[in-house]
């Protein structure tokens, strides 16, 4: 089968973002609470780690309530910043009271806070499959960043179930998530179920 995968990914990306942006607010809030609960239950080790999070964008799960819990337990948090296109992300330490600025792509980043190297990452996903492969926004920043690690950090992809695909048809440079957390549960990358909120 000769498929134009870049075009397929572009179309899937468009469909999935549109679906996510039309989730009713009360449903989004409930699903987000489920995700927060699963993160707390399944990953207590995050409380003692340097955790890279993300600033919510286009209907994504908002990790800031989880971030506050992690801060309260002693974690160090960081937000990604694009310094140059097509290069690895820089992670800057973040707390809720820090001054923020608008970075590349219109996403908020801390103003001149210190750079840190996360040993765990909460990574937003536009789409994902059962093997943990992630469909992102198409720029490849997270894959580029993960490729710079000598030893991979703990990678937790975050999405809603409506973003699940049978196969995202990963490319050679794609790096799968170790875990995926949705409103339905926490899954390891081979789709073994750890916990499910039935």
What do these coordinates show?
- The protein is α/β, with parallel strands linked by helices.
- The chain has a single domain (5-174), classed as 3-Layer(aba) Sandwich (Rossmann fold).
- It is 25% helix and 23% strand.
- It has 4 helices and 12 strands.
- The protein has helices at residues 5-21, 25-42, 64-72, 141-146; strands at 50-52, 76-81, 90-93, 100-102, 108-110, 120-124, 127-128, 134-135, 154-158, 179-182, 185-188, 193-196.
- The protein has an 8-stranded mixed β-sheet. Strands 4-5 form a two-stranded antiparallel sheet. It has a two-stranded antiparallel sheet with strand order 7-8.
- Strand 4 (100-102) and strand 5 form a beta hairpin.
- The chain is globular, with a radius of gyration of 16 Å.
- Residues 191-198 have low confidence and may be disordered.
Q: Helix fraction? A: 25-40%
Compute the average pLDDT: 91
Please state the CA-atom Rg, rounded to the nearest Å: 16 Å
Fourth-level CATH superfamily: NagB/RpiA/CoA transferase-like
How much of the sequence lies in strands comes to 15-25%
Overall geometry = globular
**Largest beta sheet: what is the strand line-up?**
3-2-1-6-9-10-11-12
Low-confidence stretches: 191-198
Which second-level CATH architecture applies? 3-Layer(aba) Sandwich
Quantity of strands, as a count: 12
Q: What separation lies between the terminal Cα atoms? A: 38 Å
- Structural domain count: 1
Kindly name the structural category. Answer: alpha/beta
What about the largest sheet? 8 strands, mixed
Number of distinct helices: 4
Enter the CATH topology name.
Rossmann fold
């Amino acid at each position: 089968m000769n498929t134009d995968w870049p075009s397929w990914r572009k179309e899937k990306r468009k469909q999935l973002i549109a679906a996510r942006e039309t989730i009713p607010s009360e449903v989004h809030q409930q699903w987000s609470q489920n995700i927060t609960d699963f993160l707390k239950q399944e990953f207590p080790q995050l409380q003692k780690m340097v955790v890279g999070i993300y600033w919510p964008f286009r209907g994504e799960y908002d990790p800031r309530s989880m971030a506050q819990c992690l801060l309260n337990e002693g974690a160090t948090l960081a937000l990604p910043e694009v310094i140059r296109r097509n290069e690895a992300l820089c992670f800057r330490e973040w707390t809720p009271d820090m001054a923020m600025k608008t970075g590349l792509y219109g996403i908020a980043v801390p103003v001149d806070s210190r750079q840190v190297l996360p040993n765990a990452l909460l990574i937003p996903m536009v789409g994902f499959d059962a093997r943990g492969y992630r469909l992102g926004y198409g720029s490849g920043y997270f894959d580029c960043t993960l490729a710079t690690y000598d030893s991979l950090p703990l990678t937790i992809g975050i999405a809603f179930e409506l973003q699940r695909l049978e196969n995202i048809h990963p490319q050679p440079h794609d790096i799968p998530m170790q875990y995926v957390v949705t409103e339905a549960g926490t899954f390891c990358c081979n789709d073994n179920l750890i916990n499910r909120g039935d």
